[in-house]
Amino acid sequence: MTTPHPATEPFGVRLRRAMDTRGPLCVGIDPHASLLTDWGLTDDIAGLERFTRTVVEALAERVAVLKPQSAFFERFGSRGVAVLERAVAEARAAGALVLMDAKRGDIGSTMAAYAATYLDPASPLFSDAVTVSPYLGFGSLRPALDLAREHGSGVFVLALTSNPEGAEVQHAVRPGGATVAATVLDHLRAENAGAAGEGTLGSFGAVVGATLGELSSYDLSIGGPLLAPGIGAQGATPADLPGVFGAAVRDVLPSVSRGVLRHGPGPAGLVSAAERFAEEVRAVAG
């Protein structure tokens, strides 16, 4: 397998173009054991390979972003990671942007190693962007932010997540009165400063759940994309997006996993579901 080539444009520029031309949608590749069973596949490497190849072949030439969840591949050990490596390379070769959902977060040389895994073009897992966790302090993410900037990649930082447990950390109030989530958004705004020209995006985004309801107390205009999980199986719909994101809705990249994947294993079902979600989002985002 050849090593994917590094990007020649910043991630935010490529993401805006992909959203405008292919539709504003990210589809997760989440091979849950139960989903493999629903597809009539075995919960082993053979099932994982068949599932992943089907999703990539059906959608990589059509959707803006594919988001493999690393954990569902790692659970099979080195052979599962090998499947993930092939999926990343094949999806990018077909024109999709790949967002690796790894949610890594650490300090110092360990964070630098995580960054190199997903953001160094020499790595077999080199992706267009990666999700990270800021809860060892936003400054601990510096190796990932710097490497992404160097190679034209993107970073999505957890800010206001859709899981109920997240509130105990993200809504905590810091000295001075700002919440932890608001502080993360402020840091991202600073990282994107000067990068986002008219009609485009910076490369440093926030993860903000589509199931959270009205968020007017937060300034979501960070100059970068807002990855919005929660559409589909978690209960949110594209029609909910303007009420959640307000004026920032055009910068939202909704993420759908089971809402599309449950329409497999036939490729036509996957394509139809993804196209329907993308059109619904386009209709409300303008």
Please tell me the total number of domains: 1
Class by alpha and beta content? alpha/beta
Average residue pLDDT: 94
Characterize the largest beta sheet: strand count, sense, and whether it forms a barrel.
Answer: 8 strands, parallel, barrel
**Second CATH tier, the architecture:** Alpha-Beta Barrel
Rg calculated over all Cα atoms: 18 Å
Catalytic activity: orotidine 5'-phosphate + H(+) = UMP + CO2
Pfam family, one: OMPdecase
GO molecular function: orotidine-5'-phosphate decarboxylase activity
Protein name: Orotidine 5'-phosphate decarboxylase
How would you describe this protein?
- This protein is an alpha/beta fold.
- It has a single domain, classed as Alpha-Beta Barrel (TIM Barrel).
- It has twelve helices and eight strands.
- α3 packs parallel to α5 and α3 crosses α12.
- The longest helix is centred in the last third of the chain and has 19 residues.
- The N terminus is likely disordered.
- Pathway: Pyrimidine metabolism; UMP biosynthesis via de novo pathway; UMP from orotate: step 2/2.
- It catalyses: orotidine 5'-phosphate + H(+) = UMP + CO2.
- It holds the Pfam family OMPdecase.
- Belongs to the OMP decarboxylase family. Type 2 subfamily.
Summary?
This is Orotidine 5'-phosphate decarboxylase. The chain has helices at 11-22, 33-38, 45-59, 70-74, 78-93, 108-119, 142-151, 167-170, 180-192, 241-245, 258-261, 267-285; strands at residues 26-29, 65-68, 97-104, 129-132, 154-160, 204-208, 226-229, 252-256.
Descriptive terms for the model:
single chain; 286 residues; alpha/beta; TIM Barrel; 8-stranded parallel beta barrel; 12 helices; disordered N terminus
